[in-house]
Each structure stands twice: as structure tokens, then as C-alpha cells.
Amino acid sequence: MRWLVCTLSVLTMCATVSPASARQPQASPPASVNQMPTVTKVPTAALPSPTFDATTATNAYMAQIPAAATARSDAYFEGGYWIVGWTFLYGVAVALLLLFFRWSAAFRSLAERITRPRPLQTGLYWFQYLAATTLLSAPFVFYTDYVREHQYGMATQSLGPWLGDQGKGFLLGLVLGGIVAMVLFGLVRRLARTWWIWGALVTMVFLIVTVMIGPVYLQPIFIKVTRLDDPKVTGPILSLARANGIPARDVWEIDASRQTTRMSANVSGLGNTLRITLNDNLLRRGSQEEIQAVMAHEMGHYVLNHVPKMLMFFLIVVVVAFAWLRWSLTWCLARWGARWQIRGVGDTAVLPLVVLLVSVYGFLLTPLMNTFIRSQECEADMYGLNAARQPDGFAQAAIHLGEYRKMHPGAIEEWIFFDHPSGYNRIFAAMRWKKENLQLFAGPASQKGPAGN
Ligand SMILES: [Zn+2]
Questions:
Q1: Which residues have beta carbons under 5 A from ligand 1 (an ion)?
Q2: Residue 13 CA to ligand 1 centre (angstroms)
């Protein structure tokens, strides 16, 4: 499920704010410890002048960030590197536990005793598997998703609602995962030699359907989705959409502040369900210029067809994953299949091994995935700057994003761990764009800050 969640959220641009303080006037000092500053005036070095220099302007923006905020953001984000590694190792440990103690084989045998039709046996196995892995992973998930998020001031949910969302996620996984498991195991049993090709295609179809129904049917399970009807906000956004040939009639809003302080906007869906969504944190804290800069970035994803391109990239990733599975499953089962009481690739008891092998593949692929996504994000940044012409609004957004994403990493660090360009690189891109378009900012309006209304 983690993979699916990652897939569905790749096209998002997020930032973080504290909703409690967000209701205060924008000029007020940060009330939350994790909050990045709202720059109400363009720094002098970033004002249009004959000596405008992109690097100097970028550094002037960076200088707006207090050292404590940078230290906190770095600690949060760098901790995330370890979480990537520990998530992988924890998952491997859980899978090995199920295999070595033959719990997986026991789940399969129990399912066979209870019911005869094989799809139902698969469904029953899936229920036991999901329940066991959810329980075994619970301490780790509780720490990373609840305790740590609260420690860094990102989460707004108390334990009850958080557990409620976990429960909904479990039920969704039970239904969707159950369907996928039944179809895939059915295929493997019928097509002994070519299952990996058909399996990859079925997985892709499932992924496309999930992306299509996601914004309309899946997201509302967790969060309230409404049409945004403040013409002051929607007017400029829809105008921007029309100017860019986007047939959008609505802008959507989600009440993300119920769960998190992160500010975000995204493009989701496919075909008829494709839409642009802002979350309420962005609406409350972002200036008009900032919101327009972020929305233009999201429109870049739309115009540049990033969702279909991402799916095509995934087709390759999934086909290679199935080819790897075909080879590695045979190899592993020849060695340990008997000891783990797994009868073959068509036996549901093989599932922990499948998950283990896919997570090894996914883990090794992390830098490649991040780099593919990051280059799309970079394209959307360039598109957004040209469309919105709000380099200072964009710089402000990059600073707000810094609340949970390290602002100035090393080049290799960014390549491996960043699925969006770093804050520093985003501000620099904005200032580089501004330097080449200084004539747009001549006159008294140029004194207006990125947060000026
Ligand atoms: Zn984006």
C-alpha cells in the first residue's frame, strides 16, 4: 500500500504551516515552532535593479530564514533518510518472520479449511496477511506517522481520529488489495509461464483505474473535498487556467488541516476526473501571489501531461518488477520453498516473499524514482514561473515548503532523497527567471512583497 500511496501522491507540491497561527494576520510573528517566516517584503537584493544578481537575490531570501528554523527543518528531513532505510528493514523483518515461522503457510492452510473456492481462499489469506502485517508494523507506523509528526508540529490529529483514519486505510487495503490478490493469483495459477507479463498489465490497469477514481471516490473517504467558491481566489486561478488552455471550471479544496499543518496543492485524476486541488492550509496562509505561483506550477503538470507520462514510466517499472519477481521467486523457492511450506508461485503463502522481493527492488529504485519525479517537478516549476510571472510568490512558497523539506542540501543528497527540487534551487530558479524579466517588475508595484495582498 505504501507504494500505491507514493504513486498517487507523486504529483503534489507541499508546504507546511500551523493552522492555529495561520488565522492570525500574516505580518504577525510565527506562533508555531516549526513555522518558516512569511516574507512580507521582497528583500532589497531581490528588488529589480540594474545590478540584480540571481545568486545574491537567492541568498537574500535564504537569509530571511532564522537559523533555528533551518536546523529544525534539516533535522526533520534528514531523519526521513533514516526512516526510508528503517521502513525497508522493518518490512523485510516482518516478511521473514511470516516465512520462517511458517505463519504464512498456516494462514493459507486455515483459509483452505474454511472455504473451497480458490478466489475466496485467496481473499481469506489476504485478510489474515493484512491483519498480521498491520499489527506487526503498528509500533513503527505509530512512531513515524503519529509521534514524530507531532514532535515536529506537523500533525493536528489527536489519537482517536488518527486511529480512525488508520482503520479506514485498513478497510480500503482489504477491499482493493483483496481484489488485486484474487486476480493476480488467479492469473499465476492459469498462466504458468506468461503470468509475469499479464500480471504486469493487470497491475497497470489497476493503477490507472485507481488514479482515475482516486480524487472522486477514494480521497473523500479520508478528507472533505469541496468546490472552492471564493471568487477572489478562484478568479485569478481560473483566468490562468483559461490562458493556458485548461478546461477547468472549478477549483477544489480539501480540509487537510484536520490531519496536518502541511500546505499543499496537487493535480490528480485522469481524463474526466483530472482536477486541481488546493488544501485549506495553503488558502489560509498563502498570499495571492504565492497561491498563483503554486497553482501555475500545478497547471504545468496538467499541460505537460505529467500524469500520463508518469503512468508510462510506471509501466516500465512494473514490467521490470514482474520480470525480477519471476526470476527471483523461482530462485528463492528452489532454496527455501520446502522449509517455508510454500508449494509454488501460485500458492498464496508466497505473498510475504513477493512483498520482500518487491521492496528490495523498490528500495534500490528510490533514487531513480525520486529523480524522475523531481525532473517533472522541475519542469512544472519552469512552466509555473512563465505562466504566473510571480517569482517572488514562488520564492515564498519555496520557503514555506522548507518547513518540512531541507532548504539547501548537497547535490548528491538532493539526487538521492529529493522528489522535488530543494528550496534553495527553487528560489534560485525564480530569481534567475526574474533577472531575465526585470522589465515586468519596474514601477511602484515592484515594492509589493510576495505576501502583499
Ligand atoms: Zn508539483
A1: 13, 377, 380
A2: 5
CB atoms within 10 A of CB 348: 27
Distance 11 CA to ligand 1 centre (A): 5
Q: How far is the CA of 373 from the centre of ligand 1 (A)?
A: 9
For residue 97, the CA-to-ligand 1 centroid distance in Å is 38
CA of 137 to the centre of ligand 1 (A): 30
pLDDT in tens, 2-27: 444 444 333 333 332 233 333 333 33
For 248, half-sphere exposure in the C-beta direction (CA atoms, 13 angstrom radius) is 29
Query: pLDDT-derived band of residue 403, with 50, 70 and 90 as boundaries?
Result: confident
Is 359:321 a contact under the CB 8 Å cutoff?
no
CB atoms within 10 A of CB 160: 7
Interatomic CA distance for residues 258 and 281, integer angstroms: 10
The alpha carbon of 125 and the centre of ligand 1 are apart by a number of angstroms equal to 38
In eight-state DSSP terms, residue 63 is: T
Residue 307 in contact with residue 376, Cβ under 8 Å? Answer: no
Using CA atoms of 351, 357, 361, 363 in order, give the dihedral in degrees to the nearest 10.
Answer: 90
Output the CA torsion sign for 165, 168, 174, 180. negative
Q: In the predicted model, what is the mean pLDDT of the chain? A: 87
Query: Residue length, the chain?
Result: 453
Coil, helix or strand at residue 375: helix
Closest CA to 182 of 129, 106, 105: 129
User: If you measure from the C-alpha of residue 360 to the centroid of ligand 1, how many angstroms do you get, rounded to a whole number?
Assistant: 27
The identity of residue 329, as a single letter, is L
Radius of gyration of the chain (CA): 24
Cα 156 to middle of ligand 1, angstroms: 24
Residue 51, classified by CB atoms within 10 Å of its CB into exposed (0-12), middle (13-18) or buried (19+), is exposed
Pairing assessment for the beta strands 252-254 and 275-279 based on DSSP bridges? parallel
Q: Which pLDDT value is given to residue 196?
A: 95
Grid cell of 359 as nine digits: 521492496
Q: Which band of pLDDT confidence, cut at 50, 70 and 90, is reported for residue 232? A: confident
What average pLDDT score do residues 406-427 get?
94
What spacing in Å lies between the alpha carbon of 108 and ligand 1's midpoint? 42
